[in-house]
Amino acid sequence: MDKSIYLKRKEEILRRMQEDSLDALVIPAGADISYLTGFTGEAGVAVVVLSPEGSSFVTDSRYTTQVAEETGGYECVLWQKGTHSYCENAGMVLAKLAPKTVGIYGADLTYKDFLGMQERYPQGEYKEAPAYLTEMRAKKTPEELATIREACRISMLSFYALLDHIRPGVTEKDVADQLEYEFRSHGGSGMCFDTIVASGPVNGACPHASVSDRVIQKDDFVTIDFGTRYHGYCSDITRTVCVGKGADAELYHIFDVVTEAKKAGQEALHAGLTKKELHEAIEAPIKAAGYVTPHGFGHSFGLDIHELPFINGNDETPYEAGTITTIEPGIYVPGLGGVRQEDDYLICDGGYERLTFITDHLIEL
Fold it and tell me: Could you report the per-residue pLDDT of 82-116, keeping only the tens digit for each?
């Protein structure tokens, strides 16, 4: 993305810091740092310190060139000998700035790292910072949406290419490995979370089963939860397919109920809808059929696969236009198997844009 986008984000954070009487802000989380600066390095190799007097990017010598190329408006501060953490080095930056109040952003700072930072700058008053970046990241920009649409497109193409490889005799691991190959072949950068391939009456009944060496059998229902990254941004899709046409009749019924629940959530989507209302719309067909879903019905995503807001039956705050959400109802019956269907949506004024378009009908292989 254009570096000016990151500059505007930084200026917005500095403006809000001034309103909240924060003289400095320490950001230790990888995805927050990527969103704010444009840095594409791995998580856990940097801490950012923001201040009106100057902003610093604390890292080590492996990333000097990358910081210079990808970020703008930050002084690159390298790890000093004799220190034990990036946060301790951030404390040295604070000691030079001498802020009265220091905001700590997010939950990624360990107590040990905080003590190391505080030891280097004990004079500051440390406090938890407001959720500036969480709020900004919830509403996607046009540039972010373009990248997410491409991540979704690559995931859809990869899934369709995968279907020829799902057949009796292959293992769940074989399917997951082939899907990662398809991601990279179609322009993605691998998996943005561990792919779920859950088949048969045992694994299929586990919502987040680990990929195993189980051999897929004829007439198995197989749930595949997958997504690739594109330029750092995620996608998230789930489809349950049938390897044959002779599965247990209840599984076909469950598939229809789950599909109805996803459609009910989809049709309810619009800016102003509350998370509770969306939860209730999705849940209604499942409850009416006598089943329950043991997990949440959806979440936002972006640089992280799970981002706020989450669909929540107790949350009465409304969705804003520009927010992305998944809708992912599922039903799981031990000893029988399970079904989950998931798609990605952009919430708009007056409705929604569906971002993923794999057929809603049962795919029989």
Answer: 888 999 999 999 999 999 999 999 878 899 999 99
Distance between CA atoms of residues 249 and 267, nearest Å:
27
Contacts of 133 (CB under 8 A, 6+ apart): 13, 27, 32, 35, 36, 105, 106
Range of the domain at 330: 139-364
pTM check: above 0.85: yes
Contact 87, 47 (CB under 8 A): yes
Rounded Cα gap, residues 345 and 231, in angstroms = 19
Token readout for 87 is 């946060």
Neighbours of 186 (CB within 10 A): 18
In sequence order, the β-bridge partners of residue 300 are 307
215 and 324 together in one domain: yes
- Give the number of other CB atoms < 10 A from CB of residue 185: 12
Residues paired with 323 in a beta bridge: 139
Contact 17, 25 (CB under 8 A): yes
Q: Work out the angle at residue 237's Cα, subtended by the Cα atoms of residues 234 and 239, and round it to the nearest 5 degrees.
A: 160
14 contact partners, CB below 8 Å, separation of at least 6: 50, 52
Number of structural domains, the chain?
Answer: 2
Cα–Cα separations (whole angstroms), residue 175 to 3, 165, 179, 304: 39, 7, 6, 24
262: three-class secondary structure by DSSP = helix
